[in-house]
Amino acid sequence: MYHPKVSSIGSHKAVPITVLLAFNSYRFVFFMKVVRFMEVFERILHVDQCSYAVQWLSGPSLTPTPIVRLICSSLSYYSKHVHDVGKYLRAWIDLLCVRRPAVWNTDSATLQLLGSIVHIAFMNDTKNLLGIPDMIYNLYQQMLKSWKENSHGIFSMFTSDHAPLALIADSMFGVSPWATYLLLLVESRSYPTFYQILYETFVMKEKLTVEEACKRAASKSSILLTTKRLAVYRWAEFVSVSSESTVFPLALQRLAIESYSLKTVNGRKYCFARRFLDSSTAESVLRPCKKVLSEVADPKGLAKAVNGWLFCSHEVTRSGFDFSVFDLDYLLQLVLADDTNVWLDFVDNDRLQQEESHDEKLFSMTCHMGPKDRLIHRPSDQFTNKTYSSRAAGFPVLPTHSGVPSAPVVEVAALFQTNSIMGLINNSIKEIHKLSEYYVTGAENVAREDAEFGNLVTKLHASVPQQVPVQLRCGIRCTSPLNTTTQVSSTKFNQTTDALMTQNREKNVLLYFMSSTLALLTKWF
């Protein structure tokens, strides 16, 4: 494999392009088995990044490097050309995350690529994201399992922090908002035991603060999640840094769901929105979120509405509550009704398509693939010597039929006179109305005949009692058998009912034919 040598001599752009072309052309599993492929791929991801010392001082880069940008654009390009886009993107998830469990969620380049993958997946499957969340969930569970095994080692007693590792650190939220959206989705459903104990604590101890309830839930579940690790606060922090991204409306929806969705405790449903949002310990997290919701430019008003839902004093679950005090109150009622459908009406679809089209065009121009992949129309020889204007096709001609009356000739000036236009079609409208009445009557007659046929079916075989002779013997050589009779029920075919059923079907067929004919006539007119 020559890619390590080519990369080491400085051909940084040639290597990723050849790898991307090959990765798209052949089976993905083949490349996973190639010796040193992961080493080459790791080098490609970070070949043009600054040193780790600089990153440690300045923090992760929010702007993709040229190589990462090129790979992101290739994802958009090939997702339009592969047969199964879901399989293609899941193969990339396997390459980026599953095979690199120790580094993938702390590497800015990986998160930027993951964001492009989630962006494309959302464009193709807004609800399930092509199964990518399930892959990340399974990977996260394996990471948590490894963390638990390591936390019981001999050196764990010297460390005071036993909190499970976060799927994404707070400092990485702004690296790739789409990737953060995916990872927070997965993280929110990864600790069901802890959250169930937390909700039970809320119900049993109403005066406990959120921080105290978290400590009790952590001690009972052995999962030491702090207050800032709660899903509602994580989403609030994400909303604070994602206002410029197209994923912002989706983040607002998830924040509303985590705040107001009803939780079941001992068979009853509770809303803990005010418990979470009015907590003094969460003020430092919610203050930047409130500022963003108040200042962000949002022509559709979703940010303003969510701001009103979060920072209020209303108990929305009390009997007779008037939801009209809120903007877009129907969305809040959907959340309370456990409706998790994506609010696509508030997503900027035009901007999403522009971003994807821009990436696709970037890779096409970089690799000079655009003109080659387009179907070039070559005119036949009979048009070679004609001018371009003569090649234009004329307007289509409506087909004529001998049984269809010709279309009336209407002058342009008459189109602006309502009475004259209605005069042309009044007779046709009357005929359509008359035929429609016939059709409705015929449908009612068909339904009546069907009901009568059903009644006749029950009478076709009548129950008739009969006496059947029976001889009782004590054995084969019985000398004194006992002759007796017993009454049984049998059925008798009713010829009269059968004749009525035949007449009913013939009448039904006639009525159905007449109704169908009237329907065609109505369509004709």
TrEMBL record:
Query: Would you kindly state one Gene Ontology biological process term found in this protein's UniProt entry?
Result: autophagosome maturation
- Residues of the Epg5-like TPR domain: 189-348
InterPro entries from the UniProt entry: Autophagy-related_EPG5 (IPR051436), TPR_Epg5 (IPR058750)
GO CC terms of this entry:
cytoplasm
Q: Which UniProt keywords apply?
A: Autophagy
The cross-references to Pfam families, in alphabetical order and at most eight, read: TPR_Epg5_2
Superkingdom of source: Eukaryota
Q: Which family does it belong to?
A: Belongs to the EPG5 family.
- Per its record, how is this protein called by name? Epg5-like TPR domain-containing protein
